[in-house]
Amino acid sequence: MQVGRRMTRDPKTVEPGDSLAHAAQIMRELRIHHLPVVEGGKLVGILSDTDLRNASLAAGRIPVPGEIPVTDRKVGEVMRREVWSLTPEDSVEDALLIIRRKRFGCLPVLSGDRLVGIITKIDLISAFIDVLEIDGVGVRVEVILPRSLDRFEELVRIVRDLGVELRSCLVSPEPGAPDRMVGRLRFDTVNGPMLRGALRAKRFEVLDPGADSL
Length: 214
Known about the structure:
Strand order of the largest sheet: 7-8-6-9
Distance between the termini: 24 Å
């Protein structure tokens, strides 16, 4: 999945010469936490609500959530100038790794020198909710599979014979077991016990669920 399909397009921006009060007003009205900073059409920094709070503290004020900072400082004085960015063609997985490792709240998206979007933690969460189809009624089943996935087709056939549809599947290595994989499968049924029982009857190793439905 590419960043360009999940990013927020044409994000609101500020310039280095804008006041922090102006930037804070935009964040409050749009309920956002970051603003790309552009100058002459080029990205030169990024401003976060944390930067605004720190500016208020530096001015000797205790910041109040939602309050406009009382300071005459400009965006360019407190913005972060070292900015990581992505392109629309980069993968969502790359965005997720960078945001996790660098502890960023978002990443600007550039096409050449032009800012075309921004991808946030919420955008990434929404992407994986959509991919895994967890926004709806269904049941998740976790099954141990050989690394070769030789029995995967058999598993799908068993479930299909029960009249149940596979909605999404995520397969990953089982920690500490190099020859085994864990398949996390989501089905369009709420009858988890029936589904798990049918798979166990065919000698599949089904992990005990924390709950039958998600």
